[in-house]
């Protein structure tokens, strides 16, 4: 076993947290990436491992050297690090959460009406990943309104059902809450729910008297493996629920079942949480958190990202290392199908539209091959014969697709290839014509630097916003109908923009 000096070990630990842990797990047991426990890594030489780390693999692992993130020496350091025993990060209990909780502006000191005339529903919050900030861009003027400090490398964000509050979650598990009624919007509360996290959502069920609206929030933690229920007005931590337990299939104990995607139902007081390593989908009823009711659906291992079908009755999630999509019915609270798609499906939240031949479909992109798979989502209607089957396969420009997007008012489907091997593909978008899905996509070259990632529509569904993920980042806005560039936002503050979330579309799960 290669020995490492303390500084080398600490440096490697930092790199592992930032670059590797998300896919391989803190305990290196594997998920989206292969297991990296010493019994596996010590069968290879340091040189071989360093080569994989530097150059990547055909199976979808990025080349951390070829993409300019790690030097040759760092790749060698990481090769040695993963031949050592993994060290579990510390636990994070309620005492730690409460100590980290800051209520900057209590609810009674907040405005009682919006303090500005902007159209809140057409604001976009943009993740400025490496700056540890969120940018708020006005969708009407296309101008960056303000930036707000957030958690380190914010991963995703959601809005409260009313649209007033923005909730963000950083890779470091810091959740923040921003009041969009303020001028400019400000962080009103923050809390650290763990050491590492990726998902957050709000309570979206209205209830008979609107009792649940903006009432609660939930964070899905990677470490400690758990979810935390928070007060939706203050982020005060209310309850921690561990997800450690047994895999759904072999009933083996797993010490690190991480919470991946979360969505919130509008029909029930319920969050849908995906537990990656044990392969369970949890329907968490938040109507009485003292007596928490959880339905644990046996699904498939390595659940990662997903979204609603157009009716918002079915939830569809990728089990990416199993090359499958899983569909559940949130009405009957049961699994409805496990569907073989392509290599490493990665839908983001997916895309819903009417296929001219096959009816309502949900589409997913894939990391491992140039493929957009369309599955039928109408099990009770005219198209029920197509339900939960792959009805069509589309071929985008390249593999390494992360996200796709459409809008009910659009007849286009936009697909990125952020992690493609070919740099031209990384910087381009494939756009399919939904009315003529047999035709090849139109390829749009977005820019000459960075990686092109993640699309979002404006409220009306007439514009598509695309990020150029680079230190000198850009947001490029296309006219959806003509697929021509309408505006290119550049600003010294636009550092590494990744996900963008339009208030209206995100609160209504329009994708
Ligand atoms: Fe993500 C969504 C986890 C890498 C940008 N990412 C998600 C979700 C999860 C997740 C669980 C679903 C959240 C939800 O819907 O509730 N992502 C992970 C990882 O574990 C992984 C593979 C490795 C890691 O260490 O983080 C990973 N993700 C990335 C990136 O490299 C991206 C491109 C840039 C970054 O931030 O590191 C990235 N992930 C995003 C974005 C979303 C997302 C923009 C939200 C998409 C949406 O439209 O909802």
Q: Radius of gyration over alpha carbons?
A: 22 Å
User: On the 0-100 scale, what is the average pLDDT?
Assistant: 96
Distance between the termini: 49 Å
Helix/strand-derived class?
mainly beta
Any idea what the shape is? globular
Per CATH, the architecture of the domain at 94-265 and 286-298 is 8 Propeller
Beta-strand percentage?
35-45%
- Taking pLDDT < 50 over at least 5 consecutive residues as the criterion, the unreliable ranges are none
Which molecules are bound in this entry? Answer: heme D
CATH class category name of the domain at 94-265 and 286-298: Mainly Beta
Tally the helices: what do you get? 7
Fraction of residues in H or I helices: 10-25%
Sheet having the most strands = 5 strands, antiparallel
Give the number of DSSP strands.
Answer: 35
What is the CATH T-level topology of the domain at 94-265 and 286-298?
Methanol Dehydrogenase, Chain A
CATH superfamily of the domain at 94-265 and 286-298: C-terminal (heme d1) domain of cytochrome cd1-nitrite reductase
Order the strands across the largest sheet as they lie in space: 1-8-7-6-5
